[in-house]
Structures are given as structure tokens and as C-alpha cells.
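In this section we turn from sequence analysis to structure. A common task in structural bioinformatics is to predict how a protein folds when a small molecule is present, because the ligand can shape the pocket around it. The inputs are simple: the amino acid sequence and a SMILES string for the ligand, here pyridoxal-5'-phosphate. Study the lines below before reading on.
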Amino acid sequence: MTNYRAIADQVAEACIKAGRSPADVQLMAVTKTMPVHVIQQAIADGATLLGENRVQELAEKRPQLSLPLGGGVPQGTVGVHLIGHLQTNKAAKAVQHADMIQSVDSLKIAQEISKACVKQGKEMPVLVEVNIGRDPAKHGFFAEQVHEALHEMSALPGLQVRGMMTIPPIFDKKSETAQIFLQMHQLFVDMRGKKMDNISMGILSMGMSDDFDVAVAHGSTLVRVGSAIFGSRI
Ligand SMILES: *Cc1c(COP(=O)(O)O)cnc(C)c1O
């Protein structure tokens, strides 16, 4: 047993409180460091979307979970997204094993993913990671760099930009987190309005164990929850 169902209920409640449809927000179970048998419990509890932050771990676990390899996730099956920083020399492996790469944090990595897609004859859905809090310890584009980055990415074969992802700085107060989510949502709406070739802005991935309710109140369409589902990782 995991807390997946309880958290799914809380996400749905947060949607209703915000006047949104629960169908508009996806719950990802972040399975990094969790052993395969625990992940299988989460799937039995209803999880259909998993998140791993390291390519190597994703590549090792995926066959053990008997999940069919990438290339789109058919209805009723389980998908795995890469959510951690990706090094250029691991782009090919990520393209091979992930259903989506949420952590595209530089043009360089976008280009490497594109090259790997062409080589492997694949299309890879990706999210652009935004360092909305301008945290020097975090990866991602600054808000003012996003438009130009999207423009460049729209020309890269195999790369399908589907939206944005962010990890906010850690604040003591929920009101501060809310402020940053508000800024992120504004950027998302602005970019959605630009209508660039080959770019769609359907997914806003923000919110984790401590703040998914705040994220849902501010327009998140995908929350990434680890410790609230599985307990702490140590
Ligand atoms: C670990 C991780 C999460 C989940 O964090 P929790 O606080 O355990 O919910 C979400 N997003 C990313 C990118 C992560 O690495």
C-alpha cells in the first residue's frame, strides 16, 4: 500500500476548491530511489504516470516493471517521464527509455535530444524547464530566455515541446510559493498565446509533496509527488 489514492483524492479536492476539473490535473508518482516492488504497489493503487530523475535508474527499472518502451503511451498503460537534469552524453539513452523528458534546461541538451531522436527514428515530447525563482543552484531557463529558446526548439526535428516544468525555490511561507507559481502560470499563458510552429503549450508541470495544492490553485496541469506518496526517501 502506498498513499497514492489519498494523494489523488487531495489533488482532486484542490482542483474542485480552485474551480477546476480534476480531469485537468495529472498526478505523477515520483519513484526515484524507490525499489521496483514499491513502484508496482503504486501502479496497483492506480498510478499511471511515474517520474524518475536519473536516466540510468529509469533504464534499469523500466524493463523490471514490464513497461513497454517509449514511443507514446497508449490509453490505460503506464508512462515514465524523466524529471532530473540530463547530461548531453546521456541524451540518447533518455530518448530510448523515457516517454517524456520534462527537464530540457538548455539549448544544448535540446539539440542532443533532437539528434538522438533523428538517429532512433523517434519523436520525443519534452517540457522546457524554467528557473522561475532565478535560483543559482537550480537548472533551467530564466523567464526572459524562454521565448527565444522556444523559437530555437521549434526548428529541431524530433523534439515536440508540450509545455513547461518548474521547481520553485524553498520558501517558509505558502504565500511566497504562491507568488512564484503565479508568475510561472503567467509566463505559460503568455507563451501559449504566441502560437509558434511545432510548439504546443498544454502542460504546466509544477507542484510537489509540500505545495501541490498551491500549484493546482495556480494553474498547474501536472503535479510531481514523491514523499507524500511513498514516505521519505532516506
Ligand atoms: C524528487 C522530485 C520531486 C518530488 O519531490 P517530493 O518533495 O518528494 O514530492 C518532484 N520533482 C522533481 C524534479 C524531483 O526531483
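The radius of gyration is 17 Å. As an exercise, try to locate the residues that line the pyridoxal-5'-phosphate site and compare them with your own expectations.
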